[in-house]
Amino acid sequence: MKKQKIILSIFLSAILIIATLSVYAEVGPTYAIVHCTVVPVSGPPVENGVIIIRNGLIEAVGVFGGITIPDDAEVIEAGEMYAYPGLISAHTNLLLEPARPPSQTQGEASSSQQPDEKPGWQKAELMAFESLRIKKTTIEDLYKAGITTILVAPEQNIFAGQSVVLNLRGESKEAMVLKQPFGLHVNFVTARGEYPSSLMGTMALLRQSFLDTEHYRLYKEQFTKSPSGLKRPEYNPFLENLLPYVINKKPIIFNCANIEDIKRAIRLTQEFKLNSYISGANEAWRVVDWIKKAQLPLLVSLDTRPPNMSKYVRQGDALKKEAEESIYPANAANLYKDGVKFALTSLGLSKSADIRKNLRTVIKAGFPEEEVLKAMTLYPAEYLGIKNLVGSLEPGKIANVVLTTGKIFDEKTVVQKIFVDGMFFEVKQPSKKAEPTSLDISGKWKAVVDSSMGAMDMTIEFIQDGSNITGSFTSEMGKWDITDGVLSGNELTFSISANIMGESMAMEFSGTVDEESLEGDISVQGENAKLKATKIPDGGVEENSL
């Protein structure tokens, strides 16, 4: 029993950190970020600034010396850094479970579909929240882009489903939710192997669905007021899911891949008086008069590739190249010059690393950097109905803070530290190029992890491929994988993917090694433990293997 208590005590701080990631409304410690250039976005930059974070919220923002640093605050020295509000991507398909392939071919779908089965396009009830698969690596990549808040939406079918707005504060999806659901997402596509097989049919289906919803609501109301002589209305799950959007005017987000889609969305909006958003919209500049007249929230994708059916793609390679390199990247700049307000999103980008690259692309094409920042903070916060929570660095707002080595969109700038809901995360940087090494550390090592709370024996097994290191840790707490290891000269770094009491967490090791011994520190979000190990000779027996 005593040994078990020691084992748990060693990683107590790590377990407590995990608990804060898993329990809604749990609060973090108090922080004081000092000596940075604060870019609140809602106001002018503050040189030599201070940000106080308490209970997950921004308590104060101002000039160093003008704000009292709380006695209980952990001071984050951020000299020469810039502090920005966390960026917001107001439409993405990241963090969703991969769609299951259809169980039948297109040719079989219509003939084998049973009369009581719903059509494949009818997915209005699908909740993105239920399909979330929280991947630590995806969140880390979004952190590197400075993104702390996202809207996640299903992406397939005409009625794709309902989206959720997340604050990326850890590995528990429940703890991340800001709005659930946010809106209903609609695509201008055709159905597979069934009606509608044309976009004209899709428009007819959408109109009929909205009309049916209105009639369904009216009949239900009439029956409720005076049921005598009326047939009891049959419950319709599909129309029930449309009621909040068609009748109560919650947001409907139309994904528009080209100018015709934009026109379709605007026509439907006007006909049924919908609360519509236009997303994607990388041809919005071609119908700017429609956009300005409709005055709908506009979510412009950073995917600057022209649509396959664009006239610029179908008139030869030279024009296609110009479209890819200059015409479509200038979409945002052209909209701005025409006085159109919009948010930028990462919709269509499969890699988070492309977000900052494409932001630089639209800046190069003429979209002013200060407006790009607003299009990734203030404007999406307004459109998502969370402007009182996020989008700027102001007292009372959620502490989503990004610390960078320079201006956030500069090519050489790196996001170093990030706060989400007031929780502090070090942003893992790409490994430096390893120096040549003559060491061979592959094999098993007898290790002791020592902290102020006690010691724990472990066995390490390293697998070495040149400078790349993988392997595992084994102890009474289980077996944990070693990943992203680099041996540079005699300097060794690696990550540990641990599981403690059913919760996943990442630890980082940094230290030195020779042929027979290893020594360094294991860190977990600011908490540290010493690791010492000696190599077990080939044929030796480790004492603490499972």
Structure description:
The protein has 546 residues and is α+β, with helices and mostly antiparallel strands. The chain folds into three domains: 125 residues, Urease, subunit C, domain 1 (Roll), CATH 2.30.40.10; 227 residues, Alpha-Beta Barrel (TIM Barrel); 103 residues, T3SS negative regulator GrlR (Lipocalin), CATH 2.40.128. 26% of the residues lie in helices and 31% in strands. It has 14 helices and 26 strands. Strands 1, 2, 3, 4, 5, 16, 17 and 18 form an eight-stranded mixed sheet that branches. The chain is globular, with a radius of gyration of 27 Å. It starts with a helix and ends in an 11-residue tail after the last strand.
CATH class identity of the largest domain: Alpha Beta
Helix percentage: 25-40%
Overall pLDDT confidence:
87
Provide the low-confidence segments as ranges.
Answer: 1-9, 12-27, 101-113
Most strands sheet: 8 strands, mixed
How widely separated are the two ends?
18 Å
Total helical segments? 14
Which oligomerization state do the chains in this entry correspond to? single chain
The CATH homologous superfamily of the largest domain? Metal-dependent hydrolases
Coarse structural class: alpha+beta
- Approximately what portion of the residues adopt beta-strand conformation? 25-35%
Number of domains: 3
Instruction: Tell me the total number of β-strands.
Output: 26
CATH architecture of the largest domain: Alpha-Beta Barrel
At CATH level 3, the topology of the largest domain is TIM Barrel
| Alpha-carbon Rg, integer | 27 Å
- The general outline is globular
